[in-house]
Design brief:
With 119 residues, this protein is mostly helical. It is built from seven helices and three strands; from the N terminus they run H-H-E-H-H-E-E-H-H-H. Helix 1 runs antiparallel to helix 4 and helix 2 (22-34) packs across helix 4. It is elongated. The protein starts with a helix and ends with a helix.
């Protein structure tokens, strides 16, 4: 994520906006369950899933799954890569770690203000 505090706040707001949709949250949780962000997986491939797998059991059209993936990608939560007919998706660790830091109260001083960081 960016080191500019204003940009950082806007990017985090986009993360929460993207995850506010239940289908997007469900898709994101499936990706996170493959390999928890911030941990080492046995291989990078272990945390990648094809788009078709992510939409299983959601009772939404494949085009809707693609739209939700586009929104997760736009928010910086996931990365995608096309391999032939397959589109692989995986969690962007940097964005997830920045979001986790926000939720746990570990924010850089330039975002919360110098006085708040010292408390």
């Amino acid at each position: 994520m960016s080191i500019n505090p204003t940009i950082e706040v806007h990017r985090l707001a986009e993360v929460f906006k993207a995850l506010a949709n239940p289908n997007r949250l469900h898709i994101f949780m499936r990706l996170v369950s493959c390999c928890h962000p911030g941990t080492k997986c046995s291989s990078e491939a272990a945390m990648r899933q094809c788009v078709g797998e992510l939409g299983q059991d959601l009772e939404i059209d494949p085009s809707t799954v693609s739209h939700h993936l586009k929104e997760l990608r736009r928010a910086g939560l996931i990365r995608v890569e096309r391999r032939g007919k397959n589109i692989l998706c995986w969690v962007d660790r940097e964005t997830v770690e920045a979001t986790a830091n926000l939720l746990s109260g570990r924010l850089p001083a330039d975002i919360v203000g110098e006085e708040e960081a010292e408390k």
